[in-house]
Amino acid sequence: MEIIRAENITKRFENETILHEVSLTLRRGEKVTILGGSGSGKTTFLKVLAGLLPFDGGSYQKSGIKMAYISQKPVLFSHMTVLENLIFPLKCQKVKRKEREAIGRVFLEKSELAKWADAYPFELSGGQQQRVSVARALIGNPDLLLMDEPFSSLDVRLGRDMRQWVFTQIEERQIAAVFVTHHYEEAKVFSERVLLMDNGLLKEATEAEIDVFFGDGLLYEDAYYPIGAWRMADFGVPVRVERQVMLYGQAYWSVILEDGTQKFIIVDENRAETAYIAPVRGEKDA
Ligand SMILES: Nc1ncnc2c1ncn2[C@@H]1O[C@H](COP(=O)(O)OP(=O)(O)OP(=O)(O)O)[C@@H](O)[C@H]1O
């Protein structure tokens, strides 16, 4: 059974078109991952699906489902305790106080937050606040979970444990989910369907494109260049710039070193004095 159908969604901010006729249909319990470069429009699309942003063109239909949205950064009510924040969705669903507090305490236990039940958000670290956000999204028993890199602010162990817990909940309760991530393992493990947002266009991603996205290679003019391990260039090395290659919004430069070898480099715009040099086709980095 279809739960949402978004067709040809166009979204503009001022005069710039951010989403170009993006379509997505989801069935009950279906899980998709969306990958894409920074600024490609993933968050914008997720917010449109969540009903948090209006759109300019296309159509969006939902069957009467409960949705929850987990943003990159936690958004909690500052005047409510952790427990009150957590059980807010149950309050909206008119679950009795005693019952919702009991459910809340189980969720607090699962998210290793039991001792913070009566604390206020400002007393928690960013990672702890995010755990409250994640638990709050699940507690209301959603049919569809929209997740925007929810585990990226957690440390490695907690991120892994939370991810496992959320994935298990999604599986057991047949929750449909749209998951935006930069994490290879998350994308592969989580869903069979991986979509790629490329400058506001959403398309199915091939295995090769997924590998490219995760920095394992560069597809250019039908050739595949492994670029797995980045090396920092000595900026003193003179290079002759050949051409620029655009890939998922990222500019690579093909350059020739003095000894004639060709390299692909990414110039880190935040640190103009550094460049990252990648090995060219066939070359394995040490
Ligand atoms: N409220 C806004 N007003 C104007 N422009 C916006 C607004 N929100 C987002 N944008 C622009 O829309 C584009 C897409 O942003 P979006 O946050 O959807 O990207 P993203 O793919 O989620 O990126 P990231 O992976 O870095 O989170 C960006 O160029 C961004 O600057």
Physical arrangement of strands within the biggest beta sheet: 5-6-7-3-8-9
- Report the radius of gyration as a whole number of Å: 22 Å
Based on Cα principal axes, name the global outline: globular
Count of helix runs: 8
State the oligomer. single chain
Global structural class:
alpha/beta
Q: Mean of residue pLDDT?
A: 80
**CATH C-level label of the largest domain:** Alpha Beta
Low-confidence runs of at least 5 consecutive residues: 226-236, 271-286
Helix fraction by DSSP (H/I, runs of at least 4): 25-40%
Number of domains: 2
Annotation, overall tally of beta strands: 16
Largest sheet: 6 strands, mixed
Quote the CATH topology of the largest domain.
Answer: Rossmann fold
Tell me what the CATH architecture of the largest domain is: 3-Layer(aba) Sandwich
How far apart the termini lie comes to 51 Å
Fourth-tier CATH superfamily name of the largest domain: P-loop containing nucleotide triphosphate hydrolases
Strand content: 25-35%
**Order of secondary-structure elements:** EEEHEEHHHHEHEHEEHEEEEEEE
Could you say which small molecules are bound to this protein?
adenosine-5'-triphosphate
